[in-house]
Amino acid sequence: MSDTRLNGNRKMSAPEGKSPFLIGVAGGTASGKSTVCKRIMEKLGQAEIDNKQRQVVCIAQDSFYRDLTPSEIAKAAKGQFNFDHPDAFDETLMKTTLNDILAGKIVTIPTYDYKNHALKKNELLTIYPADVVLFEGILVFYFPEVRKLFHMKLFVDTDSDTRLARRVPRDINERGRSLDQVLNQYMNFVKPAFEEFCSPTKKFADVIIPRGADNHVAIDLIVHHIKDIVQGRPRENGRVESIERHYYD
Ligand SMILES: Nc1ncnc2c1ncn2[C@@H]1O[C@H](COP(=O)(O)OP(=O)(O)O)[C@@H](O)[C@H]1O
Ligand SMILES: O=c1ccn([C@@H]2O[C@H](COP(=O)(O)O)[C@@H](O)[C@H]2O)c(=O)[nH]1
C-alpha cells in the first residue's frame, strides 16, 4: 500500500534537473508568513527532516536584501532606511536564484542578520532540489518577473493591529530593537510601504489566508492541494508518477 503523505522516508534529495512546484507566500510584516510555511511543512511531514533530504523547503525573501552603500548603512543604523521599499531588494538575484531552483539546480543563499541589517555571507544555506519550494516575503508578488515564476500564490491576510502587536515584541526580542525604533520605523516606512507596495499585490493571490496560521481550514485545504498536484505531476518523461513511488524505500 502506498502512503499518500509526503514524508521523510526517502534516502536522497530529489535528482538535479527536477523542477519543483514553486509557491509564493506574501503578506504584510508579521502577518504569519513564516508560521504558515512552517505549518505547511509540518503537515507535509517535513518539519524534522534534514535539509538535504527535504522534499519541501522554505526560502525567505530577506535573503535577497541587497548590499547597502556606506551612507545607507549609516541611515539603517539610525532607523532611516526603508527596508520595505522594493528598491531594498536585489531583484536580479532573486530571479536568477528562483530560475536556478526551477531548473533543478542546487543553490546557496545567505541568511539575513536583522541586528546588523546585512546578509550573513559566511552562513550560506544550501537548497537542494525539492518537490515543493515555498518562497515567503513581504514583496514576493511585487516584481512581475518573479511573480510569474510561481505555480501557486498565497497571501497571508492578518489585520494590521494584530501585525503591529506581533512585530513589536518580535523586533525587540529577536531583532535587537527598542520600542521607539520599532514604532518609528513602522510609522515612517513599514505602514506606508505596506499600503503602497504589498497590499496591492493581494490581487495576484490564488488563495488569501485570513488570520494566517490560525486558519487551520485554509492551511489543510492548501496542503491537500499541494499533495494532489505534486503527486500527480507529469515527470520529465511524460509519465505521471507519485512521489512515494519515485522516492520511498
Ligand atoms: N497565529 C498566531 N498566533 C500568535 N502569534 C503568532 C501567530 N502567527 C505568528 N505569530 C507570531 O508573530 C510573529 C510574526 O510571525 P511570523 O510568522 O514570523 O510572521 P512573518 O513571517 O509574516 O513576518 C512571530 O513572533 C510569531 O511567533
Ligand atoms: O534590516 C532589516 C531588514 C528588514 N526589516 C524589516 O523586516 C520586515 C520583513 O520581514 P517580516 O519577517 O516579513 O516581518 C520588513 O517589514 C522590514 O521593515 C528590518 O526591520 N530591518
The Cα radius of gyration reads: 18 Å
SSE order = EHEHHEEEHEHHEHH
Helix proportion range: 25-40%
Reported CATH architecture: 3-Layer(aba) Sandwich
Percentage of β-strand residues: 15-25%
Distance between the ends: 12 Å
Can you identify the CATH superfamily? P-loop containing nucleotide triphosphate hydrolases
Keywords: ATP-binding, Kinase, Nucleotide-binding, Transferase
Pathway: Pyrimidine metabolism; UMP biosynthesis via salvage pathway; UMP from uridine: step 1/1; Pyrimidine metabolism; CTP biosynthesis via salvage pathway; CTP from cytidine: step 1/3
GO molecular function, one term: ATP binding
Organism: Dendroctonus ponderosae (Mountain pine beetle)
Describe this structure in words.
It is a single chain. With 249 residues, the protein is an alpha/beta fold. It has one domain (21-231): P-loop containing nucleotide triphosphate hydrolases (Rossmann fold, 3-Layer(aba) Sandwich). 37% of the residues lie in helices and 18% in strands. The protein has eight helices and seven strands; from the N terminus they run βαβααβββαβααβαα. The strands form two sheets. The chain has a five-stranded parallel β-sheet with strand order 2-5-1-6-7, covered by helices on one side. A two-stranded antiparallel sheet has the order 3-4. A hairpin with a 4-residue loop joins strand 3 and strand 4 (118-127). The longest helix is centred in the last third of the chain and has 20 residues, at 179-198. The protein is globular and about 50 Å long. The chain starts with 20 loop residues before the first strand and ends with a helix. The relative contact order is 0.23. The model is unreliable at 1-13 and 236-249 (pLDDT under 50). Bound molecules: adenosine-5'-diphosphate and ligand LLZGTKA7.
